[in-house]
Write a structure and sequence with these properties.
Blueprint: H1 2-5, H2 31-39, H3 47-57, H4 67-75, H5 83-99, H6 126-135, H7 139-151, H8 155-158, E1 166-167, E2 172-176, E3 182-186, H9 190-196, H10 206-220, H11 226-239, H12 244-251, H13 257-262, H14 268-279
Antiparallel strand pairs: 1-2, 2-3
Helix pairs in contact: 3-5, 6-7, 7-9, 7-11, 11-12
Amino acid sequence: MISSLRGRCPRPLDECAMCNPEGKSSQKFTTELLDKFIASRPQGASKRSIESYHYTLDGFVGYTITPEGINEYFDSLSCHNGKLKFYSCLRALSNWLYLNDYIPNNPIKKVSPPRTQKRLLPAITREQLEVLLEYCHCERDRALISLLWYSGMRISEAINIKTSDFDWDEGTVTVLGKGNCYRKCLVGNGLVRQWFSEHDTFQISKGGAQTVLKRLAKETGIHCNPHSFRRGFCVHQVKSGLSTRVVQALGGWETLDMVEHYSKSLTLDDALSVHHKVNGS
C-alpha cells in the first residue's frame, strides 16, 4: 500500500497538475482555477482590473496550461496589438499557478511575447481640440473634453470627479486612478471651472462619455477616443518644452515608456521650436 502511494501528488485530483513522465502538465485551465486566481489578487485591485482578467482569461478555459496551449489560444485571437494585454494576464496567471504548485513548470517562460505593429496612434492637437469644442452639443461636453486634453487624465478618472476634489489655488484635482490609487492632475481650463462652479459632477457615465466622443468623431472626421486626448496631452506638453520625466509625473504614467513612445511623433521642426523656447533664441 505504501509503495503504491509513493511519488503521488498529495493534492486532490481536481487541483492536481497531473504530470506525465516528461514533466509536462496535461492539466486544462478551468473556471475553478480562474476564480481562485482572481480571488488571490491584492485587495487594492480595481474593478477594472478584475474585468480585464475575465476579458482575457475566460476564453482560455479549456486550453491546456502548457506553452502549446497558450500559443494555441493566442492563435485563436484576432486582436493583433491587443494580444499584449492577453499575454500580460496569462503571464500573471502562469506565475501564480506555478508558485502555488498547481503546475510543475511555468509555461509562460517558453512563450514569446506577441509582436506588435510599430505605429503611432492618433493624438488630439490643440487645433483639433478647438474644432471638437465647436461641435459639442452642450457645455458639459465642452468642459469634459477640455479636461481630458488639458489634464491628460483617463476617462474613468474624469467621470468620477466631484467639485470637492478640486484645489483651484494649487491648480490640481485629485482623482482615483489606475490601481485604485489617488493622484493629482491638472485642473484644465476655464470651461472646466465654469462647469464645476454650477455642478457637482459631470453627470455622465463612462458609456455616455464614449458615445459623446464617437458622435464628435463622426461629425468632425477627427479620430477621438478617450486615449487620444491623453496622448494629445503628452505630445503637447513635450512640444511645449517639458521634459519627459515631468510629463510622466503630470500624466500619472508608471514608466517613461509610453511618454517616450508618444513623443516619437515630434518632428525636427517641433524639436527646434522646443530648443528655441528653452534657450530663449
